[in-house]
Write a structure and sequence with these properties.
The protein has 359 residues and is of the alpha+beta class. 57% of the residues lie in helices and 14% in strands. α1 (2-35) runs antiparallel to α3 (49-64), α3 runs antiparallel to α5 (77-114) and α6 crosses α10.
Length: 359
């Protein structure tokens, strides 16, 4: 009974001491964040409370669990000690990733707050995202290697593994050629500034916004909320459209097929009048002209501009709807038609031209 009481005291005491230390660190970070709100580092470091508690609690248990004098623990002291070491390695890796993420995100937030270049901010964001993934993978690999070394069996075969590492590396490189290609393509995208998070791209006939970039794949969110996932090697081996390169401003066109009698001048004036009330038009440029003709109709092209791809789509749709509605209301004779009857001698009053008289 006394041993169980000691065990409860050791577990409870270790937990309370670790919790008090974490609480004190959290209070210090909160006060520092309140004194310097322009630096988000202290606020981000508060997310390290859980891994810090795991590290402190495991360390305290490693020092005090033998003091319980509990027979089951004494019989398996080496096993318990090994488990605590593994927990400490895992908690340390978790804490290291959280601290690194806080430092990197804080640096990015300060840079984004000072910079007015949106394209450069997106580029840095993409690089920061990939750097954090590399750091997380590296810390995980190192932690796993350190954990394996704690096992005597793995320590014994370590020399033979190092001796055969060259052959294993060659075999692994050949077997994972596609994966390694995507890995290097991810670095090329991140530091070559080919595509960034937030860019508007067109791939396989689908246009959308780059939502996520990892070391192996890239996710594009389309206009209808679908997610298109592509390997990053796609963007290094195939051509694609990046509408955000060189600025987000875009020019789009709206095509209408009308009868030859369409009043182009009035239609142009109506377009100008409508654009003045269109909130998504950026007022950079506009135009309307007949760009093609055929025996049955003419092609009217309206050109509009917008500050980005989303606004351009909205502007084009609004212009198309407005011009069609205006033609239906004001000039129905200018709508395209299919002639299925013989022409008569009576000229149409709603046409700007006359049919030739029969002899």
């Amino acid at each position: 009974m006394e041993s169980i009481l000691r065990l409860v005291i050791v577990l409870g005491g270790s937990a309370l001491v670790a919790l008090a230390a974490v609480r004190a660190a959290d209070v210090v970070a909160r006060q520092a964040d309140a004194r310097r709100p322009e630096t988000p580092l202290w606020g981000l470091l508060r997310r390290c409370r859980t891994p810090l508690f795991v590290v402190l609690f495991t360390t305290l248990l490693g020092w005090t669990f033998r003091a319980t004098k509990w027979e089951p623990l004494d019989d398996h002291a080496d096993t318990v000690s090994h488990l605590l070491v593994l927990c400490l390695i895992g908690g340390g890796a978790w804490l290291a990733v959280r601290v690194a993420a806080a430092v990197v995100e804080s640096s990015y937030a300060r840079y984004a707050g000072r910079s007015r270049d949106v394209a450069r901010v997106r580029r840095v964001r993409t690089q920061v995202t990939l750097i954090m993934r590399v750091v997380s993978v590296a810390v995980g690999v190192i932690a796993a290697a350190v954990a394996l070394v704690t096992f005597p069996a793995f320590r014994t075969v370590g020399t033979s593994l190092l001796a055969s590492a060259g052959i294993i590396g060659i075999v692994a490189g050949v077997a994972a050629q596609s994966t390694l290609g995507n890995l290097f393509a991810g670095f090329q995208i991140a530091f070559g500034d080919m595509v960034r998070i937030g860019d508007t791209v067109v791939v396989d006939g689908e246009w959308g916004t780059v939502e996520e970039i990892t070391l192996t794949f890239l996710t594009v969110r389309t206009w209808d909320e679908r997610r298109v996932t592509l390997p990053v090697s796609y963007f290094t081996s195939r051509p694609f459209e990046n509408w955000s390169r060189g600025g987000a401003e875009m020019t789009g066109s709206v095509f209408l097929y009308c009868d030859h009698s369409v009043p182009v001048a009035r239609m142009r004036a109506r377009l100008r009048e409508f654009l003045e009330t269109c909130p998504t038009w950026d007022r950079r440029a506009w135009d309307l002209a007949i760009t093609d003709t055929s025996p049955t109709c003419v092609t009217v092209r309206a050109i509009v501009t917008a500050k980005d791809a989303d606004d351009l789509w909205t502007t084009r749709v609004a212009v198309r709807e407005e011009l069609v509605d205006w033609l239906v209301r004001e000039h129905p004779g200018a709508l395209p038609r299919i002639v299925t009857d013989r022409a008569d001698d009576t000229p149409r009053h709603d046409l700007a031209w006359r049919l030739p008289d029969k002899e």
